[in-house]
């Protein structure tokens, strides 16, 4: 990590984790155990472990957004729990679909317990998210749940496109940006938007939060894609060149493929199908870098961050919470590079 | 079919299908096409087909329940669409998990397009159900959506148990009934309950509808389990002895296993694992029948139908709609035997 932002994320965890644990505690014993493992609360044998869970970025965004529109952080807790549950629903299904065997330096749920467990536990978390949100006495809970459902559908649309792209040689950068906005932007947008809705924000502040989250989400995905090609496995917790192994049409790859002077070796590799030779991947990563893919992705991430910041500066918000939201977004996008 | 009940189901279809088609029409083109195939609206190549879709029992229950509590059928249309979408979400995932290759005399979605398509299309339908319901201006929409989420979680709990039972030799009848109540009863209960909620019913009528649906659901599952062992493939649309092939610990099988005088050949077969020899299955079906499993399941279904009817007779309801609900339940349970 090149920057540290412990206080907001620690505060969020202290606020949200008891509610998240209470929610997950409602699951049947088997789904509970699988979810507790997935969230880093216990090991494969059910023995408690210490804090290797996710960073809780989405819950933090929900709480800060509620405060930014003048609400109490507490008003957004059911939304924070719900977005975290939907995020983990999607991780359980996506790890299976992508055949990823490692996440956060541990084996993924389908790799440990098989596909039925990953599918059904994911389904249970999605349903639980709606239960939790709709039990809230907050009068905006229904609108918040609608936002969540709509983001979930976008998320599945993005994942469907992502998988379809793996076997297509002609993916345009615009399609790829649309896929990333759906796959990653929609739930981050909803994390901020749901906080604003539950915090009692006006339509214009809710819209601003959604735009902020969507642009931030694209910046996040661009950086994630850079890490998927050039990231250090010790830091990412995934195998080296993981996205190249899966022939992901990620944003930097799609950018390079669309360059008129794309190197013939790279064009040939990009048009290939099937399991790639792992020994050839460092050369492919180098060709992508020479094609300007890494520089473009990082510059585009920066541009998207600027648009995200602009969205929040266009509406009236509580200044301290706005500053924290922007700092959180920056922290996430600047990680690990 | 030994009885015909076209009018209620036809009326429902006329009422709900346009709303269902509009909802499904929101999906991205790929998920739309897969869903349209699954619902029997088109063939594998996307060519329109005529009406081999489901019987729309759940939507019919929602509309009738709304009328039974004195509301308009129209008030329950978003609920009817939502329960049908959740039902089909669960079919898409369950067919994959059970490795069933046939449904309604056609290949299942995962068998045609693979597991990613079945998982993601299912996910999209679950999210879409909540979107549709929460867009309704009905003031009870939030409560209805909560019921739906809670039923979905029960459904996944039931399916998790069902799969776990396949590799267990010691499943008690009580566990099996709990599994069936979760897997089948919960969504049928919610179909009636959601109609009552959206129709403006009192808490006591909603409770009565939920109890009605749960008991009816158990009766339905008992009959379905009888068909899974002894059903005619030409009628069920599934392979002969389909539940025995999968070593399902269905209700009649679990009943027979728990009988003190269970034939040794049957006990040995029930304790076995792995793919069973198809040639031995007719003998197993005969032994189950000799053990009284079929007679018990049909009698228990009848008893559950009695409890379902009683639940509706204990509260004040519009008599015509109540009679139609009871007739619908009877029609469904008496099908095909």
Task: Explain briefly what this protein structure is.
The structure is a homodimer of 337-residue chains. Chain A is an all-alpha fold and 337 residues long.
Features:
homodimer, 337 residues, mainly alpha, Farnesyl Diphosphate Synthase, two-stranded antiparallel ribbon, 2 strands, 71% helix, globular
Strand content of chain A: under 5%
* Anisotropy-based shape of chain A: globular
The overall pLDDT average of chain A reads 92
The succession of helices and strands of chain A, N to C, reads: HHHHEEHHHHHHHHHHHH
Helix/strand/pairing class of chain A, anyone? mainly alpha
Topology (elements, then pairings):
The structure is a homodimer of 337-residue chains.
Chain A: H1 6-24, H2 29-38, H3 57-68, H4 77-97, E1 102-103, E2 106-107, H5 109-113, H6 115-135, H7 141-166, H8 173-198, H9 203-230, H10 233-236, H11 242-245, H12 251-257, H13 264-271, H14 281-290, H15 293-313, H16 319-334
Please tell me about this protein's structure.
2 copies of one chain form a homodimer. By secondary structure, chain A is mainly α. Chain A has one domain (6-334): Farnesyl Diphosphate Synthase. Chain A has helices at 6-24, 29-38, 57-68, 77-97, 109-113, 115-135, 141-166, 173-198, 203-230, 233-236, 242-245, 251-257, 264-271, 281-290, 293-313, 319-334; strands at residues 102-103, 106-107. In chain A, helix 4 runs parallel beside helix 7. The model of chain A has no long low-confidence stretch (mean pLDDT 92). Chains A and B meet through helix 4, helix 6 and helix 7 of A and helix 4, helix 6 and helix 7 of B.
